[in-house]
Design a protein that fits this description.
189 residues; alpha/beta; Rossmann fold; five-stranded parallel β-sheet; 8 helices; globular
Length: 189
């Protein structure tokens, strides 16, 4: 294995997707894992780019075949990380999983070398503002996401690193520093 496996998670709206996508666009040695989901695509999302969109039946068949590093049901939909993609990518590059807390902790159980990074909001008010400004979810969906906030942030002590996303460029730089330092540690082994 040449690369690192990192699981980046945090509450909805905290900016983890923006942080991960920006970092991946700047570094050829890092790739984002493409998860599978049973949820419907959002406007602009493309099968095989943001997610592999599967039927519930197809997803559950792949679960039965032990085809996921981790998977979970979240807001009535399944999400999972395909093992084959991760194994293939780790031969040449580091892989970032942008997944929820349950998925990250399950990935760590399945792959103990996985580095867990929590992205935290600067405040609850800022997180609410970010969620509502996305205009991609109903008020009920936003409330559901906020209701998970306390649980997700209560898991910070199980993570290797916590990055507060108060300024985007600083958060990206912190994640990049974690990757660089961990890669140096691996090279010494």
């Amino acid at each position: 294995m040449k690369g690192l496996l990192l699981a980046v998670s945090g509450p909805s709206g905290v900016g983890k997707g923006t942080i991960v996508k920006t970092l991946v666009s700047r570094r050829a040695d890092v790739v984002e894992s493409i998860s599978c989901t049973t949820r419907a695509p959002r406007e602009g999302e493309v099968h095989g780019r943001e997610y592999y969109f599967l039927t519930k039946e197809e997803f559950l068949r792949r679960v039965a075949e032990d085809d996921f590093l981790e998977y979970d049901e979240h807001f009535g939909n399944y999400y999972g990380t395909p093992k084959s993609f991760v194994r293939e990518m780790l031969k040449e590059r580091s892989v970032i999983l942008e997944i929820d807390v349950v998925g990250a902790l399950n990935a760590k159980k399945a792959f103990p070398e996985c580095v867990l990074v929590m992205i935290a909001p600067p405040s609850l008010e800022e997180l609410k503002r970010r969620l509502t400004s996305r205009n991609s979810e109903t008020d009920e969906e936003i409330e559901n996401r906020l209701s998970r906030l306390e649980y997700e942030l209560s898991q910070q002590d199980k993570y290797d690193y916590v990055i507060v996303n108060d300024y985007l460029e600083r958060a990206i730089a912190e994640l990049e520093k974690i990757i660089d330092n961990k890669q140096k540690e691996c090279e010494k082994i």
